[in-house]
Amino acid sequence: MKLIVIQFFIISLLFTSSFFALSSADSSCGEKCNVRCSKNDRKHEECIKDCNICCGKCNCVPSGTYGNKDECPCYRDIKNSKGGPKCP
Question: Any idea what DSSP says for residue 85?
Answer without folding.
Answer: B
